[in-house]
Automatic annotation (TrEMBL), chain A:
One of its GO terms (molecular function) is ATP binding. The lineage of its organism: Bacteria, Pseudomonadati, Pseudomonadota, Alphaproteobacteria, Hyphomicrobiales. The keyword Transport applies. The keyword Nucleotide-binding applies. It comes from Microvirga subterranea. Residues 2-233 form the ABC transporter domain. GO terms for biological process: L-amino acid transport. Pfam families: ABC_tran. Keywords: Amino-acid transport, ATP-binding, Nucleotide-binding, Transport. CDD domains: ABC_TM1139_LivF_branched (cd03224). Belongs to the ABC transporter superfamily. It comes from the Bacteria. This is Amino acid/amide ABC transporter ATP-binding protein 2 (HAAT family).
From TrEMBL, chain B:
One of its GO terms (cellular component) is plasma membrane. It comes from Microvirga subterranea. It is a multi-pass membrane protein. It comes from the Bacteria. This is Amino acid/amide ABC transporter membrane protein 1 (HAAT family). GO terms for molecular function: transmembrane transporter activity. Keywords: Amino-acid transport, Cell membrane, Membrane, Transmembrane, Transmembrane helix, Transport. GO terms for biological process: amino acid transport. The chain crosses the membrane at residues 12-34, 41-61, 67-87, 99-118, 146-163, 184-215, 221-238, 269-289. It is found in: Cell membrane. The keyword Transmembrane helix applies. Pfam families: BPD_transp_2.
Length: 233, 291
């Protein structure tokens, strides 16, 4: 579904991504792992059109999206739930969700809203509350719910487990499996290596602007270098 | 000095009527500030331009200033949209301080163009209702200013409905607080900026139509209003719509009462005393959110 070829990007003169090839197939969960500051979020920003690539190609569903605006990318169904949630703090939970369907899925807004409320009953209880006053976990639910409102054809999740308690992290990975079980392909960007590798079918390890390692989750999990660097074994 | 309650009441009501139009001018300023996070230095010059436009369509086509609201509001919306989208936006390269300078430059350009075109003469409209009054109980109220009050309040309510009920309005509020989040739901931020700037200019067009039956225009007139509008924005809370309305009404009353007690020429002193007081006591304004 998503094909990325020789992608290069960065900020001003500094290049952060130095030639990445990546693909996400229909129905897959693909994990992109790496330590702080290697460029995972930068990759997501390029994929969602917020940051321009310097070089390379992005294809989604057979169409070229390189250089497309973020509005067009949302329109195509490539939905990015960002790191740090980026919800609209001054607006109610319901308004946040409604805006999720600003560009895509507007015709089925009320049906999708119902679906999100079924997935996150907590959000229904708080639907009138200003989003900025939600707890961190609730804000993460809202961010994902807002993404679901756009009827994603592929969902990019940037560190969805960041700042959640161990119990909520567990719930988050259960949710990711469940969404994927309904047929939604997911690009999962995480630092939580163990749990991400448990639910992903394939994984890429980002280091120094390049994928140092990639393969099935099984292969990556058993790589001696990964064990040493990320799992401390 | 002692005044009868009727005179004081009349001053208060007069103040409310002027204040509503002030509020409308402040509304445009506070909206642009709330979303683009800049003070639009061209606000005054654009108001002047709108007042000249009202004068011009009256002189050229005999179009009544109230009817002029119909063509001038969309015209100024479009003008504001285009200026933000094709001049301010591209020229500022995303930096707020650049936007400030661009609006400052714009204001100088507009003002000088008007000076070149109209000299510094003062012009007025002579409508047959300009001096009509309405009797309201014991009060004698200026009819055009009463109309101005009603229309200004109506526009404020419409703007509030737009912002709270429509997708476009929600997109504007979303961009105001979370640009990246807005982009990721597919909101075109540059478009929203331009719509916001257009709405600010549309407010000015309406205000100009409401002012012209009782006021005059010259190429510098906008600045005086914008100084008052800025006080209102600070008093009401930067970026707050209800703050602009309440602040505008309040400032109108203060100006009117100061005028009554201190004499017309000192009416505006009270406004600036309040400005300083607010900055000292409550810099976030009445309805101001935390920074
Ligand atoms: N807007 C920016 N301007 C300049 N440099 C930036 C910008 N955003 C990120 N960077 C730099 O790019 C590099 C990659 O950042 P990025 O946010 O992509 O890392 P990350 O892999 O997502 O890290 P984390 O796991 O901590 O979220 C970092 O060195 C960062 O300092
Ligand atoms: Mg990151």
């Amino acid at each position: 579904m998503l094909e990325v070829r020789s992608l290069r990007a960065g900020y001003g003169g500094t290049e952060v991504l130095r030639g990445l090839d990546l693909s996400v197939g229909a129905g897959e969960i693909v994990a992109v792992l790496g330590s702080n500051g290697v460029g995972k979020t930068t990759l997501n920003k390029v994929l969602s059109g917020v940051l321009r690539a310097n070089e390379g190609e992005i294809r989604f569903d057979g169409k070229t999206l390189t250089g497309a605006s973020s509005a067009d990318i949302v329109e195509a169904g490539l939905i990015h739930v960002p790191e740090g949630r980026k919800i609209f703090p001054n607006m109610s939970v319901r308004e946040n969700l409604e805006l999720g369907s600003y560009r895509r899925g507007r015709e089925r807004r009320s049906a999708n809203l119902e679906r999100v409320f079924e997935t996150f009953p907590r959000l229904r209880e708080r639907s009138g509350q200003a989003a900025g006053t939600l707890s961190g976990g609730e804000q993460q639910m809202l961010a994902i719910g807002r993404g679901m409102m756009a009827e994603p054809r592929l969902l990019i999740l940037d560190e969805p487990s960041l700042g959640l308690s161990p119990l909520l992290v567990e719930e988050m990975f259960t949710l990711i499996r469940r969404l994927n079980g309904e047929g939604l392909p997911i690009l999962l960007v995480e630092q939580n290596v163990v749990q991400s590798l448990e639910c992903a079918s394939r994984a890429y390890i980002l280091e120094n602007g390049l994928f140092a390692l990639s393969g099935t989750a099984e292969q990556v999990r058993n790589d001696p270098e990964l064990k040493r660097a990320y799992l401390g074994m | 000095m002692m005044y009868s309650p009727a005179i004081i009441a009349e001053a208060v009501v007069n103040g409310l009527m002027t204040g509503a139009v002030y509020a409308l001018i402040a509304l445009g300023l506070t909206l642009v500030y709330g979303v683009l996070h800049i003070i639009n230095f061209a606000h005054g010059a654009l108001l002047t331009a709108a007042m000249f436009a009202v004068w011009a369509v009256y002189v050229a086509f005999g179009l009544d200033p109230y009817l002029a609201i119909l063509p001038l509001t969309p015209l100024f919306f479009g003008l504001g949209y285009a200026v933000q989208r094709f001049v301010i936006g591209p020229a500022s390269h995303g930096s707020d301080s650049n936007i400030l300078l661009v609006t400052l430059g714009l204001s100088i350009a507009i003002e000088n163009a008007l000076l070149a075109g109209f000299r510094s003469d003062t012009r007025t409209l002579n409508t047959d209702y300009g001096f009509q009054v309405v009797e309201l109980g014991p009060l004698l109220l200026s009819k055009p200013r009463l109309i101005g009050f009603g229309a200004a309040v109506l526009v404020t309510v419409l703007l509030w409905l737009l912002l709270s009920r429509t997708d476009t309005g929600k997109a504007i509020r979303a961009v105001a607080k979370e640009k990246l989040g807005a982009s990721l739901v597919g909101i075109d931020v540059a478009h929203v900026y331009a719509v916001t700037f257009g709405l600010g200019c549309a407010c000015l067009a309406v205000a100009a139509c409401l002012l012209m039956p009782t006021f005059y225009v010259n190429p510098r007139i906008g600045q005086a209003f914008v100084l008052v509008a800025f006080t209102i924005v600070v008093l009401g809370g930067m970026g707050s719509i209800p703050g602009a309305l309440v602040g505008g009404l309040f400032i109108g009353v203060v100006e009117s009462l100061c005028g009554l007690f201190l004499g017309d020429s000192l009416g505006q002193i009270g406004i600036f005393l309040i400005f300083i007081l607010v900055l000292l006591v409550r810099p976030t304004g009445l309805f101001g959110a935390k920074a």
